[in-house]
Amino acid sequence: xxxxxxxxxxxxxxxxxxxxxxxxxxxxxxxxxxxxxxxxxxxxxxxxxxxxxxxxxxxxxxxxxxxxxxxxxxxxxxxxxxxxxxxxxxxxxxxxxxxxxxxxxxxxxxxxxxxxxxxxxxxxxxxxxxxxxxxxxxxxxxxxxxxxxxxxxxxxxxxxxxxxxxxxxxxxxxxxxxxxxxxxxxxxxxxxxxxxxxxxxxxxxxxxxxxxxxxxxxxxxxxxxxxxxxxxxxxxxxxxxxxxxxxxxxxxxxxxxxxxxxxxxxxxxxxxxxxxxxxxxxxxxxxxxxxxxxxxxxxxxxxxxxxxxxxxxxxxxxxxxxxxxxxxxxxxxxxxxxxxxxxxxxxxxxxxxxxxxxxxxxxxxxxxxxxxxxxxxxxxxxxxxxxxxxxxxxxxxxxxxxxxxxxxxxxxxxxxxxxxxxxxxxxxxxxxxxxxxxxxxxxxxxxxxxxxxxxxxxxxxxxxxxxxxxxxxxxxxxxxxxxxxxxxxxxxxxxxxxxxxxxxxxxxxxxxxxxxxxxxxxxxxxxxxxxxxxxxxxxxxxxxxxxxxxxxxxxxxxxxxxxxxxxxxxxxxxxxxxxxxxxxxxxxxxxxxxxxxxxxxxxxxxxxxxxxxxxxxxxxxxxxxxxxxxxxxxxxxxxxxxxxxxxxxxxxxxxxxxxxxxxxxxxxxxxxxxxxxxxxxxxxxxxxxxxxxxxxxxxxxxxxxxxxxxxxxxxxxxxxxxxxxxxxxxxxxxxxxxxxxxxxxxxxxxxxxxxxxxxxxxxxxxxxxxxxxxxxxxxxxxxxxxxxxxxxxxxxxxxxxxxxxxxxxxxxxxxxxxxxxxxxxxxxxxxxxxxxxxxxxxxxxxxxxxxxxxxxxxxxxxxxxxxxxxxxxxxxxxxxxxxxxxxxxxxxxxxxxxxxxxxxxxxxxxxxxxxxxxxxxxxxxxxxxxxxxxxxxxxxxxxxxxxxxxxxxxxxxxxxxxxxxxxxxxxxxxxxxxxxxxxxxxxxxxxxxxxxxxxxxxxxxxxxxxxxxxxxxxxxxxxxxxxxxxxxxxxxxxxxxxxxxxxxxxxxxxxxxxxxxxxxxxxxxxxxxxxxxxxxxxxxxxxxxxxxxxxxxxxxxxxxxxxxxxxxxxxxxxxxxxxxxxxxxxxxxxxxxxxxxxxxxxxxxxxxxxxxxxxxxxxxxxxxxxxxxxxxxxxxxxxxxxxxxxxxxxxxxxxxxxxxxxxxxxxxxxxxxxxxxxxxxxxxxxxxxxxxxxxxxxxxxxxxxxxxxxxxxxxxxxxxxxxxxxxxxxxxxxxxxxxxxxxxxxxxxxxxxxxxxxxxxxxxxxxxxxxxxxxxxxxxxxxxxxxxxxxxxx
Length: 1338
Hints:
single chain; Trafficking protein particle complex subunit 11 domain-containing protein; TPC11; 31 helices; Serine Threonine Protein Phosphatase 5, Tetratricopeptide repeat; 7-stranded mixed beta sheet
């Protein structure tokens, strides 16, 4: 927007003129109110504030594609890609340009991006934090609505720094940014009395219909109406101290002069009398002044210098009223002129004036309306413009410039009113209207310049528009698109001017303007907007108003444009625009578009011969294309990279990129690939054939990928192992995709043992002509590779001592001396023998490797002929055109082991079981003289508890641990068996490794090994149920009544179903129940029905379920009561201070075992998914939040065996509470009709507080009768207290009345403290009453 005048870019402000008393003008300007506005602010060149702002902004744009960018990948980091030998003027191939043409009406080619981007690409892409920072600003309103009083009259007082566009502080023309501005509501200017210029009068006899304007918009009109011609004039009159008539006559004369000066312009007048003291406003002289001024009395003001600040607010309000009235009347006057004129230029002019006046009045809708009317009228006039009437293109240039001004206003107001869609549509219409150039061919470059500037200005508007929130979503709203098109037209401008520069750069007419390079858009030089400044006479002057067509006339403006154009750095302009396009496009994250812009930037650097920067951006570009596998685009990038590194004389990089460019995946042609292959040979043989020459100064080592698309290498040892003093083969396969046959100088294979290294050499020079008679896939001794040929090289190795032989590198050398060595580091990627999932003892090893199975009994039992035939099959050569197993290492063993290892056992094992295993060794080798068997069992890993493991000769720990076993002599085809026992104290996956080493009668030593998996499980899944003596649910866990498994309490359980716990994992040598679940206890609570209560009977039922695949026999199930030290994990109260863990109290049992329901039951068989139940009656003796009462000990044996094993399972940790009250009910077991019996309730207070209770006796009737079954004597309702640690007794005498089973009276005792009935009195109790036989006999 630097090309536009500041008055045109910014929102206009009403102008008020101040006349007289100059000393007051400063204070008036100082105290004028300001309003908050969002508008453009020009950044003036070389401004220190802006320079620091740009430095801050630049810190966030370190990855911007400018020459000083340091964040792009280095050349070595992005090594190599390819070249295209022939030069192409287009930055992309023609076929690709068709798919990526920048058509404003069709953005499909730029609307797609890759689905994923890697972190590395993010490091290479622009940092969009700076651009996104503007999203944090509050929504900006286009209307200046906030007015602040008493502010400074600074024209642009900013609140924060905005986005910078259109150049920077170092730019010759500065730049623009959007800011929150505090601008004055009025703009004032000092005017001398009679200093306004008079309005030009029409010539005599000239009517509106006959008037022929020489241009459309006058160049100075905007500046004149914003700086020179005020809407209101305020005349300040100093009231004279003397009262002589002469002084007042001077004042009246001034009023007359001002009125006559502003009369023909309809400027409004205000008069202010400045006095030093208060005067009588009805004084006769004042009245005369009012009549002379002939204005509304409210605009005739008085002020003293002491009250200037308060006066300014009043004056400001009245001035705004008159200003609005002035511009409103100007709009009406201009509208009336539209109806009188018929000339289209005047229509455009008048509509533009109405729009500008409305903009001053902040009537933005009306302003936008008339700007649109003016633009449409201009387009109608453009249709009538014929090139024959405008041979120099001056009128077309004027139309173009005026349309640019109008389009800017329409676009800006539409965006500021949040109508971005309308702005986009109008801009599209604007560009299409001027798409066809109407002017002389030699000036066509100016049209490309104009279109580029239009796109750039519109991009800047979109970038700075506060309401453009969709530019990250819709690319049509993204300024990056318009910056990109602008750069494209700058390139077209360069191409168009290039064809003219040779003819005009030495012209004498152009040379005289070398010192006058002022831009032609400077309106101070012009008479009409869009017309060249008059050098001698006006270019449109003529009797008829038509353009002069004298061919002899020199077009000075054209030659001045030529002189300016010759000094333009096109590359800087284009790259700056592309950089802005890149920055804005990065907000949308479309990496396809970003990569395309990068390629355009790189191409600009290339054609400007800045090959280092071209290489930098093409390398970054190629990195993205290679990652996304866009082969067509990558081909072009590689070709330009090759051209750049060639020009930079970088032979190392050239070779690397050439390798990539020769890849068959790319879309280059056969001729292009052939040229690159030939260039590689020229580098090695005759660099003078390259322009510029390019050669290597030392041998170049190229580390090749495993599967390089141009030349890949595969290796294989046919077996994973072999034996000492035998022969084995090693295969190397090369797959070549060079476009033409190529000859290498040597092939080298290196092993970790130098004595095995191999080499093949080809004595014929690489530049020699390759005979066309060479047959593909034939056995040859040369190192010639035909296109798309795979060659197999076989090396025979004679093994020596025992070792692990590994191939480390394979090298193909191209040339002698300063050669190119293609190196494959085999040890980095090839499969090693120990990485193959093979079991030497199983037949599956033959599927992975053609090696013999050491312990395959089926193969060992066959004849030697079959073994020999198997070996022949194993050593068959791989097919080089097919995939095969790559193996880089081979084990060289002493001798082939032919012994078979077996283990006979019945899996799985159970925790704490002495698991019986029988080893069986079958000798398929010659007679074994002696040998050793080593046993090893894996130790625990990542276990939270210690698991004890061991191998024993007998089924007890007192027997000898078994780690090794001496083998006796074993005859051929015989076997050896030995039993042993494995013990494991916890669930685990045991891996038993058996290593056998033996010596045959011939002295041959062999080794064999095998691993057996033996899982160890709990096998038995117990579930515990806790009940009280009334078979009610026990609330073992705080906060819940229900079932609990290994994951904690199940709050979904229901009371009365029993609390259950399912056993989980092994802990501390026994079987644990998972997580301990604890809760809080409130000492003020009363006893809950079903809780586990101290010193009250508790029934524990254990259900044991078998999950084993075989049957077992339960010999005995016992409950071992734990001591306090063993069971209390979280006591209610800590032990007293000074009490140690050796306190004898800690060895006391936590409960008393009363009975075991299955104590007298013999052994029981238990098969899979069957249950075994046992009941225990216990009394808890202590309290605690998490207490395990003991361990359930299951003694069992396998049904087929006799070894009894013990499986300890700890009981779950439960919550045991104490009763605040202990209640005993004493009543006889039966009664007799008519004989009294006693009913006693004893209540013990176990708390430290006095407890109060209420007693209510309810005597219900008997079942099926309305008569009560008992009479009783004693209190029916009473209250009593029980002291701490005391017992209270309540006694009643009952007299049975009816025989049978009858409910006893309900003695309801309620604690006042807890407001809850005692548990023992809640339940209904029944008593059986016998008949009185004595009464019957009587």
